[in-house]
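Dear colleagues,

As part of the handover before I leave the project, I'm documenting each prediction I ran so the next person doesn't have to rerun anything. This entry is a single chain, and its sequence is reproduced below.
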Amino acid sequence: MTVSWSIHRRAGHLAGALRLAEDLQRLFAAAEDPEQELVWALRTGFAQTARKAAGAVAWPDVLARLRPDGPP
């Protein structure tokens, strides 16, 4: 699924990339992997889900995932 996400993203098919990112976020949430859930919640723009996942991840790992200079 991550390869499919990168193909959609590279091709500029943003709707497909977003749907795959949402599915990956849900899969990692179900697998109880908060670090990867955080990564995909940030990519989808799910602020509340990202906040919840960030609470279960060590701060240095959260900081490594954030891009303060990135787009809002």
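The two ends are 26 Å apart (CA to CA). The mean pLDDT is 87.

All the best with the project,
I.
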